[in-house]
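ARCHIVE CARD
Drawer: 12
Card no.: 0347
Subject: one protein chain, sequence and derived structure
Cross-reference: see card 0346
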Amino acid sequence: MRLEGTLVSSVIPLLAGTVSTHTYLLHKEKLRWSESIAITILRSVIPMILFLINIPILFFVSGGYAEKNFFNQILRAVSIPIIGIIVFFILVLVYPSILKKVIVFISDFMSRIKLINKNRMVNVTRKLLTEVDKFRKIILFFVIKKKFALFMAGFWIFAAFTMDYVTAILIVRGFGFNIPWIQALAVQALMKPIIYSAPSPGGAGIWELVALGFFSLYMPKYMLGFSVFLWRIFLSYLPLVAGMYFFYREFRADSVQQG
């Protein structure tokens, strides 16, 4: 599924980020939209939790990179989507009534606009309130009854992160720059969440921006472009080819079943 999301994100980069693509693929497997979104949000929240655990790393690396303005700007940008996702997750899981009140407030405000049909707005509001309850139900189901599944998901995400980190480090070392492994891993642990939170990693340039920020810490400016290109080949273009195969096989199987 991750490979399929990589393919669609590259071919249709406007809105088809990995989150929206995974939601669609889950919905295609007969899950409700609320269930699909809940599962996908969990997939995004787990990295956020990993990031929170890694916050002490900031104090470990801040001394050596305090003068790196680009690096500091990346860290500031990371905090915004992370805070938004965590706040939304807490509202749905712990304080759903607050979220419902916000939905009702927005609905009442929009209903006052003459161009909007009030009856249709009421129906949309009811559906949203129902989806919030279903969303919370599926989240609690995983948190309470599927702890092992969440643990395994966290393990595989951690493994995927490590592979990404090592790839970037090997590119730097391949050009002859001897960088400390632990410190380089720690830096990327801080920068990774901005990639995972991006709505459109296939076309928005978020991946390249974060990679550029990392490589700029260790390499001269004239080598940054080619280094980012190599990084993109290993972590995007090669998976894109594999994703093309799995994407074709997935929809070909659907066509055979419908036929």
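Annotation on reverse: The chain has eleven helices and no strands. Residues 1-17 have pLDDT under 50 and may be disordered.
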